[in-house]
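ESCALATION

Customer reports they have been waiting on this structure for their group meeting. Please prioritize. Original submission:
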Amino acid sequence: MTLPVGLQLYSVRDDLGADYFGTLKKVKEMGYEAVELAGIGKRDPIEIRKMLNEVGLFCNSSHCPTAEMEEEGAFEKYKAAGLDYIVVPWMSYGSDHRRLAENLELIKKLATEANKHGLTLLYHNHDFEFERENGKTILDTIYDYVPADLLQTELDTCWVKFAGSDPCELLKQYKGRSPIVHLKDFWEDAEFDACPYDLIGKTREERENEGFEFRPIGHGIQDIPAILKASIDAGAGWIIVEQDESKNRPALESAKMSIDYLRSFEW
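Update from on-call: job pushed to the front of the queue and completed.
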């Protein structure tokens, strides 16, 4: 593998809740070199770093809700965990985009504050950032508004594809601004009793009758080899595997299927 591969710990959140340290050990034993935190919450950041070091997992990024970033001491806490990147996991814009302007200001403010604490802010997209406002996508508007020295990308390749865009082309567009890439696979079938928005609080009516299923890497519709090449060409430093939900098997089994696939061929 040309790039190091990590696992976004949201993928195994229930296992973490039951046994945090034991789950980290299992992730390492599978062959992952790193993890990305799904947040710190009420845990001691120093204790998290100790566990990661003991297990031998590298970690330099975490998702963190914007509301938490606005709390006093939030950036200090995440920096104390030994991180370089803090990531906006998602934001709501509304179908009429009325919240776009205030969100742009919030992202810029948080990016500036993160920078003061030695952290770089990343933005993790979903598909609704591909709606267009004044002739360009919300995603492009965000990256045009906040300069690259303050805000970098964490392109989620599943949502890019689901939105009807080409992950490889977007990685090419943001070459040099994509330190971490979210590698995620999925399948679409009208017979699935699932909605892509179930986990982020958006209504099923927004994607009515659209069957959707998250899949382990290499077991869905994504052109994984092409995305890996595009990530390397874009200058990415890390590939992060994420599977939001595993309906057909335990989450740890799905995580292992993903890393096994990525280790099965040269790239």
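Sent to customer with the following note: The chain has one domain: 5-185+222-262.
Escalation resolved.
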